[in-house]
Specification:
By secondary structure, this protein is mainly alpha-helical. It folds into 3 domains: 58 residues, no CATH class; 65 residues, no CATH class; 263 residues, Receptor-associated Protein (Up-down Bundle), CATH 1.20.81.30. Helix content is 76%, strand content 5%. It has a 3-stranded antiparallel beta sheet with strand order 2-1-3, with helices on one face. A hairpin with a 5-residue loop joins β1 and β2. The longest helix has 58 residues. It starts with a strand and ends with a helix.
Length: 409
Amino acid sequence: MPKFSYRAKDVNGKLVSGLMEGISADAIAKSLQRDKMIPLAIELLASNDGRNILQSLENLLPDPRVSLEDLILFCKQMHALTRSGIPIVRAIIGLADTTRNKTLEKLLNDIGNFLSRGNSLTNALKMHHDVFPPLFISLINVGESTGHLDNAFAKLVRHLEMERDTRRRISSALRYPILVISAVFVAIFIVNIFVIPSFASVFAKFGANLPWATQVLLGISHFFIRYWWLLLVALLLGSFALWRYAQTERGAYQLDRYKLKLPLIGDLLNRIALSRFARTFAMLYSAGVPIVQTIDIAAEAIGNHYITAAVKKMRNGIERGESLARTANSTGMFTPLILQMIAVGEESGSVDKLLNDVADFYDEEVDYEIKRLAEAIEPILLVFMGIMVLVLALGIFLPLWDLGAAVKR
């Protein structure tokens, strides 16, 4: 077993150093924490066996990401532990020992060490803002301030589960169109590479005059066969350029704007975005998060840069003392239903409840539209397949009939 040298502080704050055997540096850190010591540095000692080489190779591999399912499970476990009165440091360290995600394990150990030095959980989470979004940190901050951390984790569980369901809705909405488009491109590839060349050899033997439609098909097939590598390079470069453009602020803004204009899909994506905003805003508003901060966090949770940029402009009106309904109307992003609910909620003091009702309404509509999406795409697919059959009939079968008539004569 590999040997590690370590430096740590004991319960009295004294510096302690020594050697210890363990599977990994994380295992050594856990062992020191169980002995009520705070690890400061852990280094692997040189060894002549091949285990160090294997461990070095493992370190080259990218760490697994902390998925949404990991966060949901973490929040459920923390809700149960904090509700039972278990100290937060002990709960975090205990979950680090049980999680199967190595990245989350390291993260929780880091948070546990940070908490053991007297820091708050909110500040510990801010150090890992790439894993914990602003919404997560804000609710934990409210929970710590009010002394109801278990309620904060319960709200996060509900929110993250709704986010998971929303992502599944989006995947369901896009899966069928992507499969149809992929199948069409595969069919075009097979026809141009395998089907048309076989007919071309038949036409060449007879030396007959071919109609223009057949000549076009043979020309396209010849181009596919001869320059397939060029098409592949162009496709890869185009995909990479589009991906790089989408990573820029302007690119993400423009692409998300065009997504909302797509036929059949655009309106569906818009309703999903509005549902996200309404539910996130309602949860933060009911938790007591300041209204300006609530707008910023809810806007980021929308998942569409175009709508997010418009919604963030609401904070300017709020800071000037305008009503929430007026500032929401000025963005031009919200439907009359949401605007009406916000106006009524402001008058009655129940904005969070009414926005939750709006989110439930849009979720039901999204489920219904997803079921209808396949029915709406089928006629388009039939028309496209009909055009393909017509082109093949004009370009291939008609010349074959002419050749058959010529042979009979």
